[in-house]
Amino acid sequence: MHMENEAETTMLVESLREQTQRNPDNATAWYNLGVAQGMLGATEESIDAYRTAIQHNPAHAAAHYNLGGSLLKTGEPQKALMEFQEATKLAPEVARGFFMLGSTYGALGQPDKLIEATEAGLQLEPDSARAHYNVGLACNRLGRFEEAVDYFTRLISLNGQSPLAHFELGKAYRGLNRTDEEIQAYKDAISIRGDYVDAILYLGAAFLKTKRASADDVKYINTGGQPCLSDPEHIFYFSLGVLAYGQKDDAIDAASSLKPSSPELFREFQEYADAANQLTQGGPDSAEL
Predict the structure, then answer these.
(1) Closest Cα to residue 102, out of 58, 150, 151, 174?
(2) Using an 8 Å Cβ cutoff, are 31 and 55 in contact?
(3) Are 207 and 289 in contact (CB under 8 A)?
(4) Beta-strand runs (E) in 118-195
(5) What is the pLDDT of residues 219-246, one digit of tens each?
(6) R_g (Cα) of the chain, nearest Å
(7) Mean pLDDT across 95-102
(8) E strands, 163-223, in order
């Protein structure tokens, strides 16, 4: 927060605190105090204010909603769940309550309930990109890949510049053994974010599935954005991903360190690179390798 804004919010907190002292039964004053304290990052204080607002007005849906959000921030999803459940009962016309209820189920490791709650929110707000992403992710985790494809496809129609959406769509196609579409989805993710290492590694794995006799011999490496490019296996899959994307020279440079450290992997890479010589070079619209 900007220093001037922080000073103004601090003054607002003091003013609202005085209001609660003058009118201690005023739920709205306590709610506003909680909002202002939250703006200053005083989460514990805001929790106390929201709870006091609810004591004076148990039907204050916004207080339940904000209390749930604050409890999530402090790592208490089970308590947050109760608040979002209450918020959706009190204000069933508000989509964000269902979206946050779904996110809380996700934090509790209940993806099936995440889907149910978030879909209820999508009935009210069908163009929420974040909601489509959350449901698609949960479907992937549950192995409901056809549904995941539907959700990520809808998300991409809302926001085609989300590399995460294209990446997760590729994972759904992987689950359906639709390798050509899987490859294209990873390429689309990389075209948006060129340094998306996990998408490059997954593209390398999907490409390798089209080359090796058995897909069981292919490994999908998920680094969480922290690749170990001193690991020969990581280098191999990364180089294949770059090659499959159509950037042969960069792929050869990336794979060069395999020659002394892992000559077998280097020879296999070289075989695929040699086979690419007659294909069009370039980006994601290159001919398939």
Answers:
(1) 151
(2) no
(3) yes
(4) none
(5) 999 887 776 777 999 999 999 999 999 9
(6) 25
(7) 98
(8) none
